[in-house]
Design goal:
The chain is built from 3 helices and 3 strands; from the N terminus they run αβαββα. It is an alpha+beta fold. It has a single domain, classed as Creatine Amidinohydrolase, Chain A, domain 1 (3-Layer(aba) Sandwich). The chain has a 3-stranded antiparallel β-sheet.
Length: 75
């Protein structure tokens, strides 16, 4: 299943539960929905909106490792 389909699945779950936003902290869930391999010792947050906008927050020291793994523009 592609990344877009998994994010679409997350958005559908949010809609069915009446959620506007969701924050995921489980590395397994972040890996599943984004396809980005997580590092066990790094704390990540994934924020998704019902509109399908997704932001991943990583520790500053892990920025370059994840920048190369993520699609699109990384701030």
């Amino acid at each position: 299943m592609g990344r877009e389909l998994r994010i679409g699945k997350l958005v559908s779950l949010m809609e069915s539960h009446g959620l506007q936003d969701i924050v995921l902290v489980s590395p397994e869930n972040i890996e599943y929905y984004t396809g980005v391999e997580t590092v066990a010792d790094a704390t990540l947050l994934l924020h998704a909106t019902r509109g399908g906008d997704v932001s991943i927050y990583v520790p500053l020291l892990e920025y370059y490792r994840y920048r190369d793994s993520l699609p699109g523009e990384v701030e």
